[in-house]
């Protein structure tokens, strides 16, 4: 693979940028692979990359029904954080933060990771208590957290309305090292780096069935025919229930639509991420200048990648209450993605009862930030045939055994903290 650098940029500029090579190959599938990863989203691509990099397993194919980066990985609002309180979550997401920090250098691809801080606004005394407890636990776990007074928040976000609103701001929990990253660059960076290590990216190839004999998976049926595999890992996010149904499994999970939207681009106006669980809105500014914002799920089951107007109106109203100055902006685009909502709001990275079939699912609305840690842990789980310590709480059978991990006690709607 040709290295991307300032020199290659200069060299290619001399050729009017007409001679860049393709970022990854588009091979025909081989009859058999050591590992097949179903789903070419962030988690599937990261898994393939870490299988090759960390475990030397390179006879790998990523099977994607559409195109790489066509799913949630490029539909999200790009917020990256590790502000969790429970141990089962905290160290997993903090591993992710470590990987985010070095990702551009590791992949030789600029994923535009920006540690601009993530501030969760508290709007009542109970939230102040809960956020401060979480912040203290984070610090005890070695994760960065700071309590900000209203005056300090105003300094960071002068346009934020803190008083003349239904729920005035009482303070905020900030994770200074949290921030944002360029979502589709993450997909392309992992794809390019995995391809460089020999992984095959098979696009426009839908998995339509699983061949299972005597309790062991032998491969997958696809629109390009049967492809054999010693091991199969599934990371299809909102389509998890459908794909695992092919293996006769019913998951503790539902699929819901989550929408987001962007305004027209404006000059720099907000250099941090603001979230408000009480108002149902979170917002940041993209490097292009658009205000990027979203809220809660649409609260009905759907596989459609678009949502309904009342939710857009609700989120826009909340955004205008938080930032009255943005009320004159034109809304440029809205879109939706299909979310794999687990019943306790926590993901699953595990083996399944079917030999050599592995599951990565249940990311709710927070799977983008988990992309590197999820790929890293899923690769370990597949390669070693057992979970890593970091994903040992994300077991499939926790709903049977009662070891659920309900971080905020709000089940499958854990957004905006
Ligand atoms: C509007 C919105 C905002 C969000 N904001 C944030 C945020 O700010 N921070 C955050 O951390 N998370 C956020 N998320 C959540 C995050 O985007 C997801 O949790 C995460 O991207 C899911 O993992 P993925 O990237 O692997 O999924 P995807 O990119 O959806 O990948 C799954 C892939 O599987 C493929 N597939 C499905 N079925 C098959 C099949 N049968 N055969 C082959 N391929 C198949 C799909 O085509 C898809 O490409 C947001 C999501 C949305 C929709």
Question: How would you characterize this protein structure?
Answer:
- The protein is an alpha/beta fold and 417 residues long.
- 29% of the residues lie in helices and 26% in strands.
- It has helices spanning 6-14, 42-55, 87-107, 125-140, 150-156, 183-196, 240-245, 309-322, 371-384, 398-401; strands at residues 32-38, 60-63, 79-80, 118-122, 146-148, 171-175, 179-180, 200-202, 207-213, 216-222, 225-234, 253-265, 273-276, 281-285, 290-301, 331-342, 348-351, 357-361.
- The strands form 3 sheets. Strands 1, 2, 8, 9, 10, 11, 17 and 18 form an 8-stranded mixed β-sheet that branches. An 8-stranded mixed β-sheet has the order 5-6-4-13-14-15-12-16.
- α2 (42-55) runs parallel beside α6 (183-196) and α3 crosses α9 (371-384).
- The radius of gyration is 21 Å and the shape is globular.
- The two termini are 40 Å apart.
- The mean pLDDT is 96.
- The structure holds flavin-adenine dinucleotide.
- Flavin-adenine dinucleotide binds next to α2 and β12.
Q: How would you concisely characterize the structure shown here?
A:
Helix content is 29%, strand content 26%.
Mean pLDDT reading:
96
User: Into which percentage range does the β-strand content fall?
Assistant: 25-35%
Bound molecules: flavin-adenine dinucleotide
Taking the alpha carbons of the first and last residues, their distance comes to 40 Å
Overall form: globular
Could you spell the SSE succession in H and E letters? HEHEEHEHEHEEHEEEEHEEEEHEEEHH
Low-confidence stretches: none
Any idea what the radius of gyration is?
A: 21 Å
What class, by secondary structure content? alpha/beta
Can you count the helices? 10
Give the number of DSSP strands: 18
Helix content: 25-40%
- Largest sheet features: 8 strands, mixed
């Amino acid at each position: 693979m040709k290295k991307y650098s300032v020199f290659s940029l200069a060299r290619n500029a001399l050729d009017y940028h007409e001679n860049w090579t393709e970022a990854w190959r588009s091979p025909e599938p081989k009859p058999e692979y050591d590992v097949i990863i179903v789903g070419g989203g962030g988690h599937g691509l990261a898994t393939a990359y870490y299988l090759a990099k960390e475990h030397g397993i390179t006879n790998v194919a990523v099977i994607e029904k559409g195109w790489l980066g066509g799913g949630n990985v490029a539909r999200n609002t790009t917020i990256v954080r590790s502000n969790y309180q429970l141990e089962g979550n905290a160290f997993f997401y903090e591993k992710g933060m470590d990987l985010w920090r070095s990702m551009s250098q590791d992949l030789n691809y600029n994923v535009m990771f920006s540690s601009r801080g993530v501030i969760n606004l508290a709007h009542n005394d109970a939230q102040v208590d809960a956020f401060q407890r979480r912040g203290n636990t984070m610090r005890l776990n070695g994760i960065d957290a700071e309590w900000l007074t209203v005056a300090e928040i105003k300094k960071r976000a002068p346009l934020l309305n803190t008083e003349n609103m239904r729920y005035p701001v009482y303070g905020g929990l900030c994770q200074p090292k949290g921030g944002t990253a360029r979502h589709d660059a993450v997909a392309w960076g992992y794809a390019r780096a995995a391809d460089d290590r020999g992984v095959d990216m098979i696009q426009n190839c839908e998995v339509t069935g699983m061949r299972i004999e005597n309790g062991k998976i032998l491969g997958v049926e696809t629109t390009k025919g049967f492809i054999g595999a010693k091991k199969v890992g599934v990371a299809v996010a909102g389509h998890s229930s459908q794909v695992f149904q092919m293996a006769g499994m019913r998951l503790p999970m539902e699929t819901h639509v989550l929408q987001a939207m962007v305004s027209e681009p404006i000059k720099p106006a907000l250099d941090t991420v603001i979230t408000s669980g009480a108002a149902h809105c979170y917002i940041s500014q993209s490097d292009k200048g658009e205000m990027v914002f979203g809220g809660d799920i649409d609260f009905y089951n759907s596989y459609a990648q678009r949502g309904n107007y009342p939710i857009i109106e609700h989120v826009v109203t909340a955004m205008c209450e938080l930032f009255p100055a943005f009320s004159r902006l034109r809304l440029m685009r809205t879109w939706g993605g299909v979310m794999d909502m687990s019943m306790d709001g926590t993901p699953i990275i595990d083996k399944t009862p079917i030999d050599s079939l592995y599951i990565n699912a249940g990311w709710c609305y927070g799977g983008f930030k988990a992309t590197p840690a999820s790929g890293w842990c899923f690769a370990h789980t597949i390669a070693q045939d057992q979970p890593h310590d970091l994903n040992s709480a994300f077991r499939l059978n926790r709903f049977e055994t009662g070891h659920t991990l309900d971080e905020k006690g709000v089940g499958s709607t854990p957004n905006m903290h």
